[in-house]
Amino acid sequence: MSSKLYFRTIADLAAALDAKQLSSVELTQAVIARTQAVEPRIHAFNSFDEADALAQAAASDARRAAGQSCGPLDGIPIGLKDVIAVTGQPLTASSKMLKDFVSPYDATVTTKLKKAGAVLWGRLNCDEFAMGSSTENSAFGPTGNPWDPTRVPGGSSGGSSAALAAGEAIATLGSDTGGSIRQPAALCGVVGLKPTYGLVSRFGLIAFASSLDQIGPFTRTVEDAAIVLGAIAGHDERDSTSFQAEIPDYRAALTSQRGPWKLGIPKEYFAAGLDPEIATAVEKAIAFYQSQGCEIREVSLPHTQYCLDTYYVIATAEASSNLSRYDGIRYGHRSAVGKDAVDIYAHSRAEGFGPEVKRRIILGTYVLSSGYYDAYYLRAQKVRTLIRQDFLHAFRDVDALLTPTSPMPAFKIGEKADPLALYLCDIYTIGVNLAGLPAISVPCGFTKSGLPIGAQLIGQPWKESNLLAIAHAYERAHDWSAQFPIF
Amino acid sequence: MSSAPALDIDHIAKLARLALTAEEKATFAQQLGDVLHHIEQLAKVDVTGVEPTAHASPIFNVWQADVAQPGLTVADALRNAPAQRDNMILVPKVVE
């Protein structure tokens, strides 16, 4: 446990708050001071509101003093990716298009966190409209990785991972469409969980690719992930894909669900292109589970090589449709150029969107356009079926799959200029979104140059309890999450 | 699929309502050409008799009771409008 308040876990801080050894105002002040000290080097936030956070903290302390604590999140500062709506706060998606937008309502996850007493803290930077793997696509400038601020924190939820790793929040939320929680978690040395599609409501999340998007937590430990997931999961009638699943006590499951488990190692995930230091670290994690009596089986996901292409057809098609709402008329940037309505749409969009968003809208429009729909979009949806079947077939024999999260550690800001090279960052994470599965990235070591490495555990649909218990068993026997960046 | 002609950037930009500069058109056409070339490999997969997956959720239709509920106030709904007058959003002229 760190002596620094801002590096401690939810579980530990909640105990201290309950024991009256600490107030939420003290904790929030420590997080604010830390944020002010490191933001010039990290730039994890698009904006934050100290007075608002301190008022929430004071309200939390009053609840605890009156014996009306809402539970372990009461008084804990939690940062939100700037694609999740909070009433009265900016909501920019890191885009010029929404630079001045103020949210008129709360996302369902926001409502749930407020109900749990959390101190909502700041708007976290990300790739514009969550499109990217490095947070370099933000219209408001890149975020630095706390382990080496000249490197990227991953993306698209890079502000969420960097803020947590740097001690600027006790937990954060992100969104994951193709790896946007797990990959930045791996690159910043924290835990990142993408729940089963439909477990967490998407109401109030700015839509990127609706059939793939899912909100999830970044935390220091698996136990903290279980606590946050328990607070944000659950059916919501305002999201038509929200599933009426029973929400178990994820935290209790960490210890009640015991192995030994059967773990599958997909051979396609250890092929060419994987950084050797990451391969070694993940192999050590495999060896750990074996030493605990788990059965390790090699499995095959034969359509893995088609995941990237399937993803870029489906995700861009859905993005081109979702982003058609930004026309400069009802909200968002409106161009001063343009002689008629259609002209104003085209110029507002050209001025408001950055290059990566434009590229994806063009590609998505193309694959949906007359004459190409069957060849690209419909075909990709069929390949998606085969990709999902690969996973479900593997799960007949194993409880979870163990893979690297990212093929490479954090790279230098500006290093990957080619869009296709950046798309390859997601090769181990996108299959999970296409198949709608839950997956978690847990820290599993460091490179020789001191950059974090993450291992990904992929679970069966709706079996988050099991997935978290498997991840917890590893984490308990290692001290990676007790290491903090020094800067 | 492999016989698909190169992406007609002018036509697609028009469909997407994006006023791209000549420079953007040249850059995107080249970059997306590379991406499309990569995507061509989907043509190799045998999808005969395979049903498409729209999303991985086991839900296919949802019914809700038609009950009026409080919504945004006029002030909240107009707060982000780029131009407004008399509690209405000001829009460019669409009919002569």
CATH topology of the domain at 1-45 in chain B: Histone, subunit A
Please estimate the helix content of chain B: 25-40%
Order of helices and strands of chain B: HHHEE
Strand content of chain A: 5-15%
At the third CATH level, what is the topology name of chain A? Amidase signature (AS) enzymes
Rg on CA atoms of chain A, Å: 21 Å
Q: How are the strands ordered across the major sheet of chain B?
A: 1-2
Tally of distinct domains of chain A? 1
CATH evolutionary superfamily of chain A: Amidase signature (AS) domain
Helix percent band of chain A: 25-40%
- Tally of helical runs of chain A: 16
Amino-to-carboxy terminus distance of chain A: 18 Å
N- to C-terminal separation of chain B? 43 Å
Please state roughly what percent of the residues of chain B sit in beta strands, choosing from under 5%, 5-15%, 15-25%, 25-35%, 35-45% or over 45%: under 5%
Strand and helix map with partners:
The complex is a heterodimer of chains A (487) and B (96).
Chain A: H1 10-18, H2 24-42, E1 45-47, H3 50-65, E2 77-81, H4 108-115, E3 119-124, H5 158-165, E4 171-176, H6 182-188, E5 191-194, E6 214-219, H7 222-232, H8 250-256, E7 262-266, H9 276-291, E8 295-299, H10 307-322, H11 341-352, H12 355-368, H13 373-394, E9 400-404, H14 419-423, H15 430-435, E10 439-446, E11 452-459, H16 464-476
Parallel strand pairs in A: 2-3, 2-4, 7-8, 7-9
Antiparallel strand pairs in A: 1-3, 4-6, 5-6, 5-10, 9-11, 10-11
Helix pairs in contact in A: 2-3, 5-6, 7-16, 8-16, 10-12, 10-13
Chain B: H1 9-15, H2 22-39, H3 74-78, E1 84-85, E2 88-89
Antiparallel strand pairs in B: 1-2
